[in-house]
Amino acid sequence: MYAKYENPEKEFSVYRRKSVHHPPHITGALECIYVTDGTLELGINQDLFHMEAGDFAAVFPDMIHHYQVFTTGKNYAVHLVASPLLSGGLLSTLQNFCPVDPVIKKENVHPDIVYVMTHNLKEEATKYSDFVHQAGVQIILGRALPLYKLTDKSSTESDDLIDRTVSYIAKHFTENISLTKMADDLYVSQYTLSRIFSGTFHTNFNRYLNTTRLRYAVHLMKYTDQTITEAAMNSGFESQRTFNRAFSEVYRMSPSEYRKTMLTDEE
């Protein structure tokens, strides 16, 4: 299975669109789907799940997924795409687990989920939008997770090398890993892995690894009282200097400036 890596530019977005075939892809975001009209087939790894109007599904970060439509007529769905950082204390769950069956049938979908999915379509941006978006994501997860049977993401790994690559990074990013060690552990050549990162993820091993580590470090800085140094070390960075450089390249400010910005926003 060939999967394209898509990196959402926004931390939160909601849109309603006509359901059409969408090829296999991977994102680092949480993707929620609420079918409003017709049907939709949601594929995750090698499995295909049928959805009808009123059904809801959540695709956890770093899962290969695709969409297909087998029926004619009016087929539409609302898609909510959000950074896993908005999940607060549920980030670890999103990183390490996934639903055995991601679809919640219409009769079991809580009204709160429907409200968040549909209300945000018409919400105007305000200075409180970030808080509203974070609350919306946590409401959806709070209502959906008790209905899911979760399994370790490693148990869903296929023979697909892209899937194995994503799963490996998600599982080991806090450790001292290298392209050489990863290639050895996956029983492939470094050249093959390098092609995966450049051809599918449009980056290299170090940048992909650092992006994963930064995402987790930002979570620790936002939702824990860990110092910046502790957040950096617990995210897998070998030194504060390496962390500062990687952070500045992505966020265009230092970690300390970022934390000050967060504190100002909360006032």
Structure characterization notes:
- This protein is α+β, with helices and mostly antiparallel strands.
- It folds into 2 domains: 4-153, Regulatory protein AraC (Jelly Rolls), CATH 2.60.120.280; 173-266, Orthogonal Bundle (Arc Repressor Mutant, subunit A), CATH 1.10.10.60.
- Helices cover 42% and strands 21% of the residues.
- The protein has 10 helices and 12 strands.
- The protein has helices spanning 91-96, 111-119, 129-144, 161-172, 179-186, 190-199, 205-223, 228-234, 240-251, 255-266, and strands spanning 4-5, 12-18, 22-26, 30-37, 39-44, 47-52, 56-59, 65-68, 76-82, 97-99, 103-104, 150-152.
- The chain has a 5-stranded mixed β-sheet with strand order 1-3-8-5-6, with no helix packed on it. Strands 2-9-4-7-11 form a 5-stranded antiparallel β-sheet, covered by helices on one side.
- Strand 5 (39-44) and strand 6 (47-52) form a beta hairpin.
- The longest helix is centred in the C-terminal third of the chain and has 19 residues, at 205-223.
- It starts with a strand and ends with a helix.
- The relative contact order is 0.12.
- The mean pLDDT is 87.
From the structure above, extract its key features.
single chain, 267 residues, Jelly Rolls, Arc Repressor Mutant, subunit A, 2 domains, five-stranded mixed sheet, five-stranded antiparallel sheet, 12 strands
Q: Which consecutive residue ranges, at least 5 long each, have pLDDT under 50?
A: none
Please identify the structural class as seen in this structure. Answer: alpha+beta
Helix and strand pattern: EEEEEEEEEHEEHHEHHHHHHH
Q: Count the domains.
A: 2
What is the number of helices?
10
CATH class of the largest domain: Mainly Beta
pLDDT averaged over residues:
87
Principal-axes shape call = globular
CATH topology of the largest domain: Jelly Rolls
